[in-house]
Every structure is written in structure tokens, then in C-alpha cells.
UniProtKB/TrEMBL annotation:
NDH-1 shuttles electrons from NADH, via FMN and iron-sulfur (Fe-S) centers, to quinones in the respiratory chain. Couples the redox reaction to proton translocation (for every two electrons transferred, four hydrogen ions are translocated across the cytoplasmic membrane), and thus conserves the redox energy in a proton gradient. It is an enzyme of class 7 (translocase). Residues 2-78 form the 2Fe-2S ferredoxin-type domain. This is NADH-quinone oxidoreductase. Residues 215-271 form the 4Fe-4S Mo/W bis-MGD-type domain. The lineage of its organism: Bacteria, Pseudomonadati, Pseudomonadota, Alphaproteobacteria, Acetobacterales. It comes from Endosaccharibacter trunci. The keyword ATP-binding does not apply. The gene is nuoG. Binds 1 [2Fe-2S] cluster per subunit.
Amino acid sequence: MAKVTVDGIQVEVANGATVLQACEAAGKEIPRFCYHERLSIAGNCRMCLVEVEKAPKPVASCGYPVMDGMVVKTDTEVVRRARRAVMEFLLINHPLDCPICDQGGECDLQDQAFAYGGDHSRYAENKRAVKDKYLGPLVKTVMTRCIQCTRCVRFATEVAGVPELGATARGENMEIGTYVEKALTSELSGNLIDICPVGALTSKPQAFTARPWELRKTDSIDVTDATGTNIRVHAKGPEVMRVLPRVNDAVNEEWMADKGRFSVDGLRRKRLDRPWVRVHGKLRQASWQDAFVAIARRLEGVKGERIGAVIGDLCDAESMVALGDLMTALGSPNVDCRQDGAQYDLGRREFYTFNSGIAGIEEADALLLVGTDPRHEAPVLNARIRKRWLAGAFPVGVIGTVGADLTYPAEMLGDRPSVLSGLLDGSVGFIEALRNAKRPMIVVGQAALTREDGAAVLAACWALAHQVGALLPDWHGFNVLHQAASRVGALDLGLVPRAGGRSVAGMMSGGVDVLWLLGADEIGAGRIGPDTFVVYQGHHGDAGAARADVILPGAAYTEKSGTYVNTEGRVQTAFQAVFPPGEAREDWRILRAFSEVVGHTLPYDDLDGVRRRLAEVNPVFARQGLPRFGGTDLSGPSGDLNAIGTAPFAQPVSDYYQTNTISRASETMAECSRVYARPVIQAAE
């Protein structure tokens, strides 16, 4: 450790730390534009100049290493003059168009100009203008505002793993852009907007819609994948205007995937805002009472085993436990959360969660991906894998079909589960990388579990984890990567068919007379038997609503307070940002109200009561945080290792931008799907 004195305050920092980090440890705020805590150091902007004792001139603190006994001054007249000069230089060509810039109000350049800007400039020549670049349908460019901090270049190359941005020309003629004009091919491109310190990169879908100070901000959780990204919903009046990430180093650091960020326009389109009942083959508007009565009449005389429920991918735990309790009250064992037919072993929670933890990826030293494409299933988690690969000595093996570059080198071992047998008997070379690792990690995806031999594949992966030493008292290297935000929470609640119950496939093939769909749109509604009475409860007029006999309008994730459990088993809470449209209501309230009509009143009347019920069903819902644990119980999940099939793994995600009801309703996501499904060079807008 090095002892450094900053403005008379002595601090200890690690050897190799920078002067800027020492200043922050002393509580001093240092202005910066190019420096970012999660990117490499560039030293471009020179805004972070400080005075170091015995140095001949001010130094750039972001790239200057500390030394023991160093004395730093951050607020002398020399420093202030230097920063004012840098600011004057940065503003030489800046257009100063704050009144029409979407970055206005949350712009680093504005803030620092307020502190260090002058009332005039000595530069009298004409300002330069730079042609705007085309970066795709998500990121808008006004490159005349660019100050060449290169944050975007470093993020694209280092974090996103897509080195498509760079600088061309030199000096005053330098410009940032793609070398060949095309759309950025990263699922994390929206983060460029967050890290840009000026208005050069802004959100194209949200251009000129609202100012930051007009927006109400509410903490929530992204439900478009199972990562559990911490987000902040920004609303204006009754509408969600944008979604930004919150910092959570244990889950998403400060990044967010494009689908969760830009699909918010889907919250306003194709919404269900009133109940509907099918009369003589046509859906007609109805009151809540009429809709409930229609369902109750159809349930009269129907035995419990002829009633079923399917849970969708975006549901909160409160609505799921309410539906489970209602089905239990009706005597139905037919409840299933696995729209895709995935096979899990619910004997222990570690059989279906990401046990290493997302942050634990950085501790692993070898990785095997089985039936998963994390770049498209969980882009933020994939960025963490890339971060670990950049640290060095991290071999990655893949079994399955990966449609695109993972953003880091990976050895393709094959596309069939028989490769697992080869690893177990030592005939596949990658087994040595796993055996030599101190903390090997195996990640099993949904493409491996939705097969007929999914249980066998799961058991084989556990056996492999045991064999290579991935199950240790202080390390649990067996992980399941989910795609659905609701899946782990539903499994924690035991929402799978009970004894004698039918799975999704069994219910859809005529196994039930009444089928309740809770936001379930990925089941292929056309396969539901023609004689099945379908109740659809959800927030979008998607496939499930089109097949329904009764539609009950629910609330989207931004319109209710809810509990979500991410792929690693972390329980997180989202808060209500706006109200549901029209007559739509929170899902658990709908189920509670209907339970009264059928004479099976659920035993809770408010949100606190529902959450007490959650903790009663599974104590995990009462826990905060995610305790780390090792693989102490080595007995594996049920599954016959000899039952592994020969068919290749399917593609985990066919279209990243069209995976749920919200993204399918989004015009922005539809445009992304068109652009990236058929990549073409487009002219700048």
C-alpha cells in the first residue's frame, strides 16, 4: 500500500493505483471526460489535471501512478487555470446547442463548463462540422458535439467485444465512427449513450420526447431476460419514457441489454385495457363482473383435474403464488411454468440456479457452455464472461449451436450431447482444461433442458462438474442459465405439475377443459384443443389473447410492485412506476377478486399479505442478498446418463429482439429485427 497526501488528507491506496483514485479515496471530486472506472485509461481529455509536489507541471491524474509519500493538490490556482484552459480548448468546436440537445440536463460537459467555463472564448475562427454517423436504429449521433474522449470506442472493444468503432484521420480532422458505415452489431449498444459525456450519442427512439427533470424515477428490475438487471424506470405522466440501468456490481455492474432498454415503446402498444368475453365466436367488451361470471359458469361441474394453468415468462412472484393457490383451491394439480417444456429436478435449489453467482464468473478459471448462447440469452452476463476472459488464462469450451461470435474465443467441441459422454470418459481434449482449473464452471442452457433427454443432459453436466472438481466447499461451479424472468421464482414456488398433474403439452392436447394462461404466449396457442375454454390474463394482445374465450387485462412489470428471482436465485423487488391503462389491474388482485366469485377466497387482501404467503411457501423469498455456498452435497439430479440422445442442440434464441410480448409489440424492436436479420449498409439519417 502507498501512503498519499491529498489536500492535507493522508490516504492509503494499493500500489499501482492512479492519482485520480487516490483523490477519490480522499473524498475529492476530480472532473473527467475520458476516464471511466470500467474502461481502460486513455488520458485524452486532460480535464483531470492536478498538481503533484516536485512535478514540473500539472499531471493528468487518471493515468499517473501513485508513489509512497506523494503529495497531491487538487484545488490550487495552477490547477484551476489549467482546467479552465482545457475547457476552453474543448469548447472550441463544440456547437453549444444545449437547448436542442437530448443530453441537456445530464451532460458532463455542461456540468464541468459551469464549474470551469469562461464567459468568452479567444477562438474566433469558424467551428468545424462533422457528418453524423449511422450506428443503427438505436443510437443517434450528432458528431459535431464529440470531444474525442474515446469512451465509446473503448466500451465497444473492451466490454461489448465488438470492435466496430474507432477513430479515423488525425488532429482537428479526427472523427469517431464505424470504419464502414453500418449498424452496430452489439446487444449492449445502448450503454454507449450512458457513457458518452456529451450529446454526441443519444437515444434515437427517445429523441426529443422529454427532458430529464420532467421524469419521475422508479427503481425496478428488467424482465426481458433472467439476469435480473437493476433498472430505473423514467416516466412522464402515465407513460414510461425510458429505462436506464442502476449500478449493482453483483448483478449487472452498470450495464443493460438493448432489449430491456429500448423495448419500452412496446408498453404503449397492443395493450389490453378492459375485459373481453367471447360470445358466439366473437370477443366482446365486458365488465369485470361479467367476465368473472362467465369463467365461474364454465367452471361449474368441472372436476379439478380438468382445470389447468400455464405461467408465462414475465410474471412476478406475487401473481404466480396467487394463481397457484387458486388452482389448489379448485383442486387442480395441473400448473406448469415451463412453457418451453424444460426438464428440471426440483429436489434441491442448486439443480436449477446459477450457483456460482454472476459476480462469481470473475473467480472462475475455465468454462464449459452446454446448450446456451449467453450473448443472446443474457448479454450482460456474457459481458461478465468476456471481462473474465480479458483477465487471461480462461479457456472456454462450447457444446451446442451458437449463431454468432460470443465476443471471446471459444473452442467448439461439438453440437451434440454425446460430447458430454466423451468428456466424462476423457476422450475429449477439453477435459484437461477443466481438470487443471482450480475453479471450473459449467453453464447449462435452456436448449439443453428443453429436449426429450433434458433430464439426462442435466445429470451428465452435474456428473462432469463433480468429476472435474467444480463442486467444492468454497466453490459451486454448476450453473443453469435461464431465459425467463419468472422461471426461477416459479420453480421456487413449486409451480410444476403435482402428482397426477399434466404438463403444458398435456394440457394443450385436450387434457383439460378449462385452461388459465397467466401471460403465457410462448406455448403455441394454435395447439390448444378447440374444445378447451381458455382464460387469458395478461397485458398485451398477443397469441394467448387471440385464442382466449375470456380476457382479463393485467399490469405490465412497470405498472405493479413485484418480486422477481433472477437466474442465480437472487430475490429482487420492483416498484410501481405508472398505473395500468384503462381497467387493467395488478394480476394478484385479479386472482384475489375472482377467488371470491367462485367461493374460494384467497387468504390475503394486500401486497404485504401476498408477500407473507410467498415466504410461507418458500423462505427464500424472505431473504435479502445472495449468500454464497459451495457444493457440499455431491448427489446429483435424477436422470439416466445412458439416455442421452444423438440429436444436435437447437439454436437457443432465434431472434434476440422478438422474444416476449413487450418486445414483439415494440416498433423499435421490430426495426432492430429487420436491420439485424438482413444487415445492409444504410445511409446516415
